[in-house]
Please model this.
Amino acid sequence: MFMNFRRIHKCQCVQLLTTGLALCMMVVCWEELDHHVVSHMRSYTYRYLINSYDFLNSSLIITPSHHHNKDGSNRVASGPVNYPYLINHPGKCGGGDGRTWDDVLLLLFVKSSPENSERRQAIRDTWGNESFVWAELGVSVRLVFAIGVHPDVEGRSKVQRALLQEDQTYGDLIQQNFVDTFHNLTTKLILQFHWSQTYCPQAHFLMSADDDIFVHMPNLVKYLQHLLSSQSGAKGLWVGHVHRGAPPVRRKDSKYHVPYALYPWPSYPDYTAGAGYVVSGDVAAKIYQATRLLNSSMYIDDVFMGMCAKAMGISPQGHVYFSGEGKAPYHPCIYDHMITSHGHATDVRSLWQAATDPKTYRHSQGFMGNVYCTAVRVMLLCTPYYQNTYSCVAAFT
Model:
């Protein structure tokens, strides 16, 4: 039996070239590969095998030796800084001048940037309209917008004048004197929980939402009323689109980059997407206490929320119709169950009109309507495209 050495050499050359090409691709794409594969493997191993976040109490608890960082960046280095209010409405939920507290089902805190006046107006005209909720749904909702000061020093005074005029008209802006930037989102989160405990502690629920989110208010109110009437009485609730075992992003070019010096551990505690989530009144009080105890230098607000909740023994509860970072499909069979959808900077009014139109739900009525809508939801949701909104499980709910 004879060997063809020429053929062997050719095969070896092909193998060497293929191996070299694969190694080159790994070197070029290592950062992406490390983030999407290696870091997630480490994170899931830590989350599901070790599952220990003792560092939240051992290394992140504020001690008297900690000092606040009050440099020009306005980033919080330890405990929460008590920034002064520039615009405030202490009587929004009653309780002022000796009055009794109003019975508030839901306190809506919308995180908004100073220049986003059009988004705020669209929310006031649609899902955040307090008068509509009271007249049509029979419950009391309070809407406020959490904002800081404009980051552009030169244009700040002009924007501030516009904010004061806007607030004089609507009376729903809550502003503190910190720079409104991405790295101060945790400061804005602390503002929400501090204000709610100081001026609206009786609210049964608190919702935190971005100003480009859409909330199907009739569906949300129905869901919250059901929780209140349940045996648990809606205690210990933190519900939204849950991220489990998420790893810190180490790529320096990412908006969400977190250096090892800030967070050296391979996995975040479970948290809900910051686009929109709801907590019960007792949880809001516990989160407020945690913000006063934990080092708040973590500038990704939804992660910091997860850290506070973990320290207080609170776990997030997933809901299939709370959106993540993506936009939900436009279809009547989706509107029938929708609670939140993210990424609606320009189409809030048209979506509100379509989602709340009584004619929308004719398709889902009766046995055949349910079968039809289930089939539609399977086609819409059981694809990778909508993985950041509603999962495939939602199609059968």
In short: The chain is about 40% helix and 15% strand. Confidence is low (pLDDT under 50) at residues 26-33, 65-78.
